[in-house]
Fold this sequence. Notes:
Layout: H1 6-13, H2 25-79, E1 98-101, E2 109-114, H3 118-121, E3 126-128, E4 144-149, E5 170-174, E6 178-192, E7 213-221, E8 228-241
Parallel strand pairs: 2-3, 4-7
Antiparallel strand pairs: 1-2, 1-5, 3-4, 5-6, 6-8, 7-8
Amino acid sequence: MAATTDTDHEEQTDAPGGQPAPPPRGRGRIALAVSVFGELLITAGLVTGLFVVYSLWWTNVMADRAADRQGDQVRDDWAEGRGGSGGPGALDTKAGIGFLHVPTMSRGEVLVEKGTSMKVLNDGVAGYYTDPVKAELPMTGKKGNFSLAAHRDGHGAKFHNIDKIEKGDPIVFETKDTWYVYKVYGILPETSKYNVDVLGKVPEESGKEKAGHYITLTTCTPVYTSRYRYVVWGELVRTEKVDGERTVPDELR
């Protein structure tokens, strides 16, 4: 039997025409699967990135536009004498009832409307509670809790910097005829989203035991989640009548 040389072996493993033989079928299929999986991961990453951009940027743009249009309409109504002494329309209305000013949280104003549903808050506004605990609007003059909610991220993110608020800071609510000036006295950085006691007429969890004129700001926490609620409480310290120039209170200057 003739011996097999190295040259002979190479000639046997080469494909016809001198080309290298193709890899085994199993190995080729694995490589193809890895390639497809990698492409899917890249696509999924791009889709996720686009969704994040949409959620945290584009929804803010759209919500701010909607809030600006509604806010302009409210101020036009006031300037033309519509809306009575309690804001635009009756107190129990879906239209904006006034503007919230919290200098340490935001330099801008936040339109306040009725309700805390996603449909309301997604327009880049704050909403006053009608359920599960009904807010007491300050224009009624009655003691109670003017409780509000707004998004912390996306859709305007009006309460994004709520964690910047400290005790002693001012919260000002502006209506057609009156400035309501509150002072922050209590902060709860984290509580259950089912804790409705923070919205009570007398928010005992804030340390209060008697009825008064309170304001409560609530939003989701931690940032970019909705697991818990962040709460800020304030108490009315004075009111000021709005003059012809709508001169802002000292706290906003």
